[in-house]
Amino acid sequence: MKTKEELNALKEEVETVNKKLAELTDEELEQVSGGQNDQIVCFGGISYFSHTVEKNDTLPRLAFRYNTNVQVLKDLNNINGDSNVLEQGRTILIPIVM
Predict the structure, then answer these.
(1) What is this structure's pTM?
(2) Residue 68: HSE in the Cβ half-sphere, 13 Å Cα cutoff
(3) CA–CA separation, 52 vs 50, rounded Å?
């Protein structure tokens, strides 16, 4: 269980990220989210963008592109098993890292 200090620090970090997102132009938002198919969403106090899987997208490629890791993407999107291949057209969430 996280301490009150850890939770407060996390809350401040989330507020900072959300403030930075609100200040971005449409062009910058497209760069952050990766394309026109994507939408920025916020729930649980954390910002993500929804990404529609395109041909040749794999978990390692997306993790590298968006500065995260494969396990985070699997956990966040309830992806089980060893396969890193994603079904084209599927929408997955990717955490926004700034």
Answers:
(1) 0.58
(2) 19
(3) 7
Contact present, 54 and 86 (Cβ < 8 Å): no
How confident is the model over 5-47, as pLDDT tens digits?
A: 877 776 676 666 666 666 666 666 556 555 545 567 666 667 7
Instruction: Please give the full DSSP string across the chain, using - where no structure is assigned.
Output: ---HHHHHHHHHHHHHHHHHHHH--HHHHHHHH-STT-EEEEETTEEEEEEE--TT-BHHHHHHHTT--HHHHHHHTT--SS--B--TT-EEEEE---
AA identity, residue 54: E
Residue linked to tokens 């592109």: 65
Q: In which residue are the tokens 């394309």 written?
A: 35
Domain boundaries along the sequence of the chain: 4-95
Topology of 4-95 in CATH?
A: Membrane-bound Lytic Murein Transglycosylase D; Chain A (3.10.350)
